[in-house]
Amino acid sequence: MDGVLSQEEITALLQNGGDAPSAAPAGSGEMQVTADERDTIGEIANISMGTAATTLFSLVNHKVDISTPVVDMATWDDIVNQYERPCVFIRIAYTVGLDGSNLLVLKEQDVKVITDLMMGGDGMNTEGELGELHLSAISEAMNQMMGSAATSLSSMLEKTIDISPPEANLIDLKDSLDEKEIDEFLAGDFIKISFKMEIGDLVDSTIMQLYPISFAKEMCESVKSNMTKDMQENTTPAPAPQPQAAPQPAAPQQQMMGAQQPMMGQPMMQQQMPMMGQPMMQQQMPMMGQPVNVQQAQFQSFSGDFNPAIFQKENIDLIMDVPLEVTVELGRTTKSIQEILDFAPGTIIELDKIAGEPIDVLVNGKYVAKGEVVVIEESFGVRITEIIK
Predict the structure, then answer these.
(1) 339: exposed, middle or buried (C-beta count within 10 Å: 0-12, 13-18, 19+)?
(2) Helix, strand, coil share (%) of the chain residues, nearest 5
(3) Structural contact between residues 137 and 118, judged by C-beta atoms closer than 8 angstroms
(4) What local confidence, expressed as pLDDT, does residue 67 receive?
C-alpha cells in the first residue's frame, strides 16, 4: 500500500464525518443513523414503552413486562424472513409536535390473548380467526398505550405531542402485501426496535416498532435541541452582585464632639448620647412603643323567644320547588363485555330480584323506600310499602 486514499475511501470518510469507512447495512443506504442516534432512539423507545406497559397492565389486569429495546436497521425483506405470519400491523401517525408515523407489529396469537383478557376472559379463548372485533379491541388498547407513550415523549421533548387513532390490519407478510400499501418508508431502510413482551404466563413474545429514518432523526434532533437548551440555562452565569454604598463619613462637628468627650467628663457624655443615638431610637419606637388596644370580644345575645322550628320551616319552604328525580329499580346484574356483545333481540337477562319481591325506590340516586308495582289505567305505578330510615 502506498498510503494514498482512493476516491471511494475519501467519499466514505466525508459521509461518516471523518470516521473510518464501515459497511453500510442492506437497503437503499441513502440515509443512515449514527451510533449516538441509535442510543437516543433506544432511550426514547425505552421510556415510551415503559409507560405503555403500565397502561396495558390496567387493561388486561395481568403483569406486563417489556424488555429493554434493541435498535437495528432493517429492510422489508428482513421483516418478512424473521417474523412469523400472519401478523397485525398497527399504524400510529403523529398529528401534533412531530411529523411522521410508526408501525407496531404484533403476532396474531398475541393479539387474540390481549383482546380476550380485555373482554374479561382468561386469555385462553384464542380459537378461530382474527376478526373485526379483535382488531377494534387491539386498536383501542394501542390507542391508550401509545397515548400514554406520547405523554411521556411530550415531557421528554418539552412540547405537546399527539397521535391519531391507530389503524390495525391483519397482514400476511409475504403473500398478500405490497409494501407500499402499508407505508412508503418500507421500500428502503428503516429503524426496527425490538421488544420482548411478557404478559403473565400467557404471552412470551417479541413485538416490533418500525420508524422511518427521517422520523427517527427528527426525534433525535428534538432531544438534542432540548438538551442543548437545558445546558445553556444551567451554565448561564449569575448576575454580579451590586456594590454596596460606602458608609457616609460623620459630620465634622460630630467627630470633634466625639474627640472631646474624654476631656469633658461624664455630664457632657450624658447630654450627647441621646443625640448620637437618636436615629436608632426613632426606628425602634414605632415597633416597641406603639400602644395596643386590647378588648374583650362582645357578642349580641339572642332574645328568649327564639323558636328554631319557625326558622327551620321558613328555610325548608325556600327549597320546596326544587325538582328531584325519582327512579324505580326493578333489579340489577353484572355481565362481562363478551356477554354484552352477545346480546340480541330476544335475549333474557336474569336480575338479582325474586319475583314478587318489593322493588327499590331511589330519589336522586339515594335509596329511600320499597314498593310494589301497580297499574294505573295504561301506566305503571308504584305503591310505597316501606320507608327506609
Answers:
(1) middle
(2) 40, 20, 40
(3) yes
(4) 87
CA distance 211 to 340: 38
Determine the residue type at 136.
S
For the chain, what's the residue count?
A: 389
| pLDDT > 90 in the chain, percent | 6
State the DSSP code for 245: P
**Grid coordinates standing for 124?**
385462553
What are 263-311's pLDDT values in tens digits?
444 444 444 444 444 444 444 444 555 677 777 777 666 555 555 555 5
pTM given for the model: 0.51
In 295-336, beta strands by DSSP E: 326-329
The closest of 26, 22, 50 to 34, measured between CA atoms, is 22
Cα separation, 133 vs 337, whole angstroms: 12
Of the candidates 261, 213, 94, 106, the one whose C-alpha atom is nearest the C-alpha of residue 164 is 94
What mean pLDDT do residues 10-18 have?
Answer: 49
- Closest C-alpha to 147, from 56, 212, 63: 56
Coil, strand or helix at 255: helix
The x, y and z cell numbers of residue 361, run together, are 325506590
Question: Do 167 and 9 meet the contact criterion of CB atoms below 8 Å apart?
Answer: no
- Determine contact, residues 88/34, Cβ cutoff 8 Å: no
